[in-house]
Each structure stands twice: as structure tokens, then as C-alpha cells.
Design brief:
two-stranded antiparallel ribbon; alpha/beta; eight-stranded mixed sheet; globular
């Protein structure tokens, strides 16, 4: 992603339209954070989904858009200026109404600078930027946490997951105080979502019932959420925390 997608700062405009950035991270392994990130992107009016976990296998596989044409993280080479959202949108893969920036199956790392530039381009374009974070603190993770309007921690509903989420919560809050919790069932021991939220010291944004069919959906072409599904309802509840976004004029904000 080179000079064609950037514009000098002095020539770019900002008409006051700003989208939101949401960072999603698992409070424990296997919590379903990436699935929620996809649901958030699909539930937003217009979304940019960023995969910041180079070891996650590629979030476009969850969408079913691994064959969509467009740039991936290893293709980026940012050299000054700031990015225009219209150019970024046209360069990235788009699948089922979601613009996606993911990685490749070969090794790579994401730096903080490109993350900041892409997030800001999306926000200036008045889209909702969803960042799917790894459970390790890299410069890219920190950049996304710092830029986020809301950090969403996803936890399973069991004792060990509760302990892991409780340990992570203050670390996240040190980077961004706007942290909320989503709890995903089932609850094998009868632990309730509100109890996990109380122990972790985080506000409960949503609780999701178990959806065992999701794994099969991924294997058969990617996740598709019915509007009334537990995950889609939870995604709307999370997005409802954010203030409304005023669309950019002509959809062409810088």
C-alpha cells in the first residue's frame, strides 16, 4: 500500500465525520473473540475488520473470504502522508459487505505505524473499525488498544476462563480505561456471566448462549449470522454502547 493510497497531511481534509474503533481480545484461549469480531463487523452499517494476530490463521477464513482479491498485511509499505479511506477501501478485500485486512499463511508481523494509519483512515471515513487482537502484547496490539473507543474482552463461562480474564483486565485497563466484557456459554459449572463480570471488575456488555453449529459453518464457507442468533444479538448490544456515527459526505471522507 504505497503512495497512491496516501495524501500529504496538508492536502487532506477532515469534515468532522468520525467512525469508531473497537478492539476485541480473548480473556482466555478459545473464548470466541474472533467470532465476535466478525459478528461486530457484519452487524455494523459499514465496517473495516483488521486481523492483528499473525498466528491466528487469518480472520478472512471465518468470513469465508480467503479468496477475495485485495491487499494483505505483508503487502503494505507505508511511506509518509496519511491514508485516504476511499483508496484503502478500494485496495482491500471485501466480502459480505465487510472490508478486511488480514494476513497470509506465511510468517509476518504487523507494526504499530500501519495499524495506526489504517485505523485512522477508517475512522475518518466514518466506518466502524473492528480490531481482532492476539493474546500477546505487541506494538501493534498496543496501537489498537490506544486507538480504540471500546475494548471488548471475551471470556468463556467457566472458572479457569474467569481467572484468566480477571488477570488480563487490569493490564488492558492500563492501556485503555474503556473496557467491557462479553461472556460466552455454555456454563459447565453453573457460573453466571454477571458473576464473571463482578469478579473481573468489568461491566458486562453481553452474554452469549452456546452456538455449537458455528464450527461447522466455518468449515462450510464462513460464518453467517441470522439477525436473531445469539452472536448477532450480542454484537448489536456491544455496538449499541457506541454513539451514532454521522456518515461522511458522499462517503468519501479522507
Amino acid at each position: 500500500l504505497c503512495g497512491a493510497l496516501a495524501e500529504p497531511a496538508e492536502a487532506s481534509r477532515d469534515d468532522g465525520s468520525r467512525g469508531h474503533a473497537v478492539a476485541v481480545i480473548g480473556g482466555c484461549g478459545g473464548a470466541g473473540a474472533s467470532s465476535l469480531a466478525v459478528a461486530l463487523a457484519q452487524s455494523a452499517a459499514d465496517a473495516l475488520l483488521l486481523d492483528l494476530d499473525p498466528w491466528g490463521g487469518g480472520i478472512e477464513l471465518l468470513l469465508g473470504g480467503e479468496n477475495a482479491p485485495g491487499l494483505r498485511w505483508p503487502d503494505l509499505a507505508l511511506r509518509g502522508g496519511r491514508l485516504t479511506w476511499s483508496a484503502v477501501r478500494d485496495a482491500l478485500p471485501r466480502h459480505r459487505g465487510v472490508s478486511v485486512l488480514s494476513g497470509t499463511r506465511r510468517g509476518y508481523e504487523v507494526d504499530a505505524g500501519p495499524v495506526h494509519a489504517i485505523v485512522e483512515a477508517g475512522r475518518r471515513g466514518a466506518v466502524t473499525v473492528i480490531c481482532d487482537l492476539p493474546r500477546r502484547f505487541t506494538d501493534a496490539t498496543q496501537a489498537a488498544l490506544s486507538a480504540a473507543d471500546l475494548v471488548v474482552v471475551v471470556s468463556r463461562c467457566d472458572v479457569r476462563a474467569c481467572a484468566a480474564t480477571t488477570a488480563m483486565a487490569p493490564v488492558l485497563a492500563a492501556s485503555n480505561p474503556n473496557v467491557g466484557l462479553v461472556v460466552r456459554g455454555p456454563s459447565p459449572g453453573g457460573l453466571r456471566a454477571v458473576e464473571i463480570a463482578e469478579i473481573a471488575g468489568l461491566p458486562l456488555l453481553a452474554a452469549i448462549k452456546a452456538q455449537p453449529q458455528l464450527g461447522e459453518q466455518v468449515e462450510r464457507g464462513g460464518l453467517r449470522y441470522r439477525r436473531r442468533s445469539a452472536l448477532a444479538v450480542a454484537a448489536r448490544e456491544v455496538l449499541g454502547v457506541l454513539p451514532p456515527v454521522r456518515a461522511a459526505r458522499n462517503g468519501r471522507a479522507a
